[in-house]
Amino acid sequence: MKSSARKTMAALPLLLLAALLIGCGGAADDPEQRIRALIVDAEQAAEAGSTRRVMRHVSEAYRDEAGRDKSELRNLVRAYLFQQDSLQLVTRIRHIEVATAYRAHAEVQLGLAGDAAERARSMTGLNANNLQLQLTFDREADDEWRLIRADWSRGSE
């Protein structure tokens, strides 16, 4: 076998791996799926008590209905997570709307619970720790979606 043929054969596994990764890129490039993954990662980060990981999903341009910016939100998240011995979140993404290539909205139901019974009650509306979240995301210059606004209210369902 010639030298160039051997080099091509040696590179074949790398080429196949690259083709496989490119072929799997559809979901990663889908804005709705990326936003779903962001919400799941933020939920897992909060349950793990990681303020830093939660906040990496928040834009520097963040503002909420109370006028809080990213720094104030970080302090609020840090204080809340610090107070929790154990945190279990139950999220239900009710709707995601990709309005433009750079803006998306999500409606999320969030149950804050400690044990299994409390988690079940939080999703049936029997727990006062059930929140309805209206989230707005922007796709930023680094091509990452980040939260720019969050409005919430107590929810019943």
Could you name the key traits of this structure?
single chain; 157 residues; alpha+beta; Nuclear Transport Factor 2, Chain: A; four-stranded antiparallel beta sheet; 4 strands; 28% strand; globular; disordered N terminus
Care to describe what's here?
The chain is an alpha+beta fold. The chain has one domain (31-154): Nuclear Transport Factor 2, Chain: A, CATH 3.10.450.50. The protein has six helices and four strands; from the N terminus they run αααααββαββ. Strands 1-2-3-4 form a four-stranded antiparallel beta sheet. A hairpin with a 5-residue loop joins β3 (130-139) and β4. The longest helix is centred in the N-terminal third of the chain and has 21 residues, at 3-23. The protein starts with a helix and ends with a strand. Residues 3-26 and 115-128 have low confidence and may be disordered.
Record the SSE blueprint.
Blueprint: H1 3-23, H2 25-29, H3 31-47, H4 51-55, H5 70-83, E1 88-100, E2 103-113, H6 116-124, E3 130-139, E4 145-154
Antiparallel strand pairs: 1-2, 2-3, 3-4
Organism: Natronospira proteinivora
Signal peptide: 1-27
Protein name: DUF4878 domain-containing protein
